[in-house]
């Protein structure tokens, strides 16, 4: 078979076939009377073998070794090809992500593109100061895609940078809530924590709904952050978790403040007081927790609280009794 016929059959150009011949990779076994290259069936079979190995990413030198070296073993080479392919996929995925983010920002011109690229690079900087400046300027200087800000916020460990990123997301409103909601389902505890913290700073009805759903999250840290944020927003669903935080001495001062804010609504004051009293009466509650619960009653208005404090002023625990009596005097003096 002549070179032109082989090229049509194999899909390998005549020029490449001549290159293979110059490398000694595929040599035609014969010539015609006119001096033209003539390929046998074995030659064509070898061409297909060469192309098959090239499709795996082997260089022509590696292909030659694989076909001609009897002692050649493919395992190490295949492992190396797997590593190279993974690295290439990672690089290409990163490039695709970057391009999508630039496209999502809808840049008006190349100047905008360059600004976006600079900010994206700054968000990925090893310098915390650079990342913080990028977060603070992301809202004003260039329309950085919300996906990039969410990804940065969910991975940021520096508290100052994390705060700047949460602020930037809050300025964008509900644009990143879908991605942050995915963060709440992350298998990584730190990511879940950062997600709920970011949602808590977005003053939006959809954010509030996400926080309410987060009260049922399996992660207790997520539930606590959600409760604190909801308490500040006047959402009664947060009350049980907030009281648990007081009992467990976990951000108990913040939890008590949130309960106080909720109790400014008359409809909730008696409900909160009744729950605090129920906890105080529970036999399994430790003495230190009973003292914190008594202190939490200080800023809860209403008759239910006053009656509870009057009873507690005679409590067997002297500290609880003295605390309740003191709170009562302060309330009477108002």
Automatic annotation (TrEMBL):
InterPro entries reported for this sequence: ARM-like, ARM-type_fold, DNA-bd_dom_put_sf, MerR-type_HTH_dom, MerR_fam, PBS_lyase_HEAT
Record keywords: DNA-binding
HTH merR-type domain sequence ranges: 1-69
Listed PROSITE patterns: HTH_MERR_1, HTH_MERR_2
The protein's name: MerR family transcriptional regulator
Organism in which the protein naturally occurs: Streptomyces albipurpureus
């Amino acid at each position: 078979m002549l070179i032109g016929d082989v090229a049509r059959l194999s899909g390998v150009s005549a020029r490449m076939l001549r290159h293979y011949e110059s490398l000694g990779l595929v040599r035609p076994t014969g010539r015609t009377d006119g001096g033209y290259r003539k390929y046998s069936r074995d030659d064509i079979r070898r061409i297909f073998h060469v192309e098959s190995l090239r499709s795996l990413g082997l260089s022509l030198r590696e292909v030659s070794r694989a076909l001609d070296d009897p002692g050649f073993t493919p395992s190490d080479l295949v492992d190396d090809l797997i590593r190279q392919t993974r690295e290439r996929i990672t690089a290409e995925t990163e490039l695709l992500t970057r391009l999508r983010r630039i496209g999502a920002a809808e840049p008006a011109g190349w100047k905008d593109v360059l600004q976006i690229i600079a900010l994206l690079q700054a968000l990925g900087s090893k310098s915390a100061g650079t990342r913080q400046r990028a977060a603070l300027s992301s809202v004003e200087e260039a329309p950085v895609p919300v996906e990039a800000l969410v990804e940065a916020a969910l991975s940021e460990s520096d508290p100052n940078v994390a705060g700047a990123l949460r602020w930037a997301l809050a300025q964008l409103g509900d644009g990143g809530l879908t991605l942050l909601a995915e963060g709440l389902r992350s298998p990584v505890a730190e990511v879940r924590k950062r997600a709920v913290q970011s949602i808590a700073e977005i003053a939006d009805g959809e954010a509030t709904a996400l926080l309410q759903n987060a009260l049922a999250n399996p992660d207790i840290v997520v539930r606590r952050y959600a409760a604190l944020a909801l308490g500040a927003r006047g959402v009664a669903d947060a009350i049980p978790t907030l009281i648990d935080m007081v009992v467990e001495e976990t951000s108990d001062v913040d939890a008590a403040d949130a309960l106080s804010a909720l109790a400014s609504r008359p409809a909730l004051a008696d409900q909160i007081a009744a729950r605090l009293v129920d906890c105080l009466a529970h036999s399994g509650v430790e003495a230190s927790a009973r003292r914190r619960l008594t202190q939490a009653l200080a800023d809860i208005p209403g008759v239910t609280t006053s009656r509870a404090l009057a009873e507690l002023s005679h409590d067997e625990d002297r500290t609880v009794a003295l605390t309740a009596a003191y709170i009562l005097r302060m309330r009477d003096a108002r």
